[in-house]
């Protein structure tokens, strides 16, 4: 069983541009969580998708958005990039029965905004 | 809202010795889950151990064990027989049993293993 995959590994953009990050959950699992890990900080919850719908979002501005596709892969879009958006973006898939589940993480995408 | 606090930004231990990483959390919920994740230089987040709040017995996974004190809202991680491969950032995380079930993380503790 393949784990959570993310692409690209690294992404370099300039201020004002848009970034698109991708995540594929563990096969057969429908939920994807996105987290941001800015330099020197812990992980902050960004977005939760399940069954193709956005279910919850963290305290981030609307220029952070995304979607989930019928195959349950997900995209995270960051518009009008700012320098402080530079961070490691991680996605995770829960495994196990819903209330008992544990989240397993992908390798992350390192976004650098110049 | 729930919060997680790791008061030790950095810890170091000699190889083969035991080290304990501290974590406290704040919640008004009675049913929840607690986790320790490890993040080595590769940046991959790896699950170390998890604890269900309804279980009184402390979780153990080989050399890793926790001391879960629900009343004190404390969740420490003990690493026995420390190995060089244990060097990493360690994050304590909280998850509600209901709702969005997002993870709430502490700020992390950087663990160094001295040979």
Q: What would your notes on this structure say?
A:
- The complex is a heterodimer of chains A (114) and B (115).
- With 114 residues, chain A is an all-beta fold.
- Helix content of chain A is 0%, strand content 54%.
- Chain A has no helices and 11 strands.
- Chain A has strands spanning 5-7, 10-13, 19-24, 31-38, 43-50, 53-57, 64-68, 74-78, 87-95, 102-105, 109-113.
- In chain A, strands 2, 4, 5, 6, 9, 10 and 11 form a 7-stranded mixed beta sheet that branches.
- The N and C termini of chain A lie far apart (37 Å).
- Chain B is mainly β and 115 residues long.
- In chain B, the strands form 3 sheets. In chain B, strands 2, 5, 6, 10, 11 and 12 form a 6-stranded mixed beta sheet that branches.
- Chain A binds chain B through residues 33, 35, 41-45, 48, 55-56, 58, 88, 90, 92, 94, 98-105, 107-108, 110, and chain B through 33, 35, 37, 42-47, 50, 52, 91, 93, 95, 97-108.
List the helices and strands and how they pair.
The complex is a heterodimer of chains A (114) and B (115).
Chain A: E1 5-7, E2 10-13, E3 19-24, E4 31-38, E5 43-50, E6 53-57, E7 64-68, E8 74-78, E9 87-95, E10 102-105, E11 109-113
Parallel strand pairs in A: 2-11
Antiparallel strand pairs in A: 1-3, 3-8, 4-5, 4-9, 5-6, 7-8, 9-10, 9-11
Chain B: E1 3-5, E2 10-14, E3 19-21, E4 24-26, E5 32-39, E6 46-52, E7 60-61, E8 64-69, E9 74-79, E10 88-96, E11 103-105, E12 109-114
Parallel strand pairs in B: 2-12
Antiparallel strand pairs in B: 1-4, 3-9, 5-6, 5-10, 7-8, 8-9, 10-11, 10-12
């Amino acid at each position: 069983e393949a784990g959570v995959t993310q692409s690209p590994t690294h992404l370099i953009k300039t201020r004002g541009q848009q970034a698109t990050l991708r995540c594929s959950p563990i096969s057969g699992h429908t939920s994807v969580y996105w987290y941001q890990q800015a330099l020197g900080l812990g992980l902050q919850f960004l977005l939760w998708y399940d069954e193709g719908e956005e279910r919850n979002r963290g305290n981030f501005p609307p220029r952070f958005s995304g979607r989930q596709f019928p195959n349950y892969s997900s995209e995270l879009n960051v518009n009008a990039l700012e320098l402080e958006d530079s961070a490691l973006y991680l996605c995770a898939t829960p495994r196990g029965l819903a209330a008992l589940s544990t989240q397993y993480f992908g390798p992350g995408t390192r976004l650098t905004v110049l | 809202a729930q919060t997680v606090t790791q008061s030790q930004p950095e810890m170091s231990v000699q190889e083969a010795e035991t080290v304990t990483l501290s974590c406290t959390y704040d919640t008004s919920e009675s049913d929840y889950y607690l986790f320790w994740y490890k993040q080595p230089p590769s940046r991959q987040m790896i699950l170390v151990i998890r604890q269900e709040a309804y279980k009184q017995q402390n979780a153990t996974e080989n050399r890793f064990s926790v001391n879960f004190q629900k009343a004190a809202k404390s969740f420490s991680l003990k690493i026995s027989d420390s190995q060089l491969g244990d060097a990493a950032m360690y994050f304590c995380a909280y998850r509600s049993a209901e709702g969005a079930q997002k993870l709430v993380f502490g700020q992390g503790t950087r663990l160094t293993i001295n040979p």
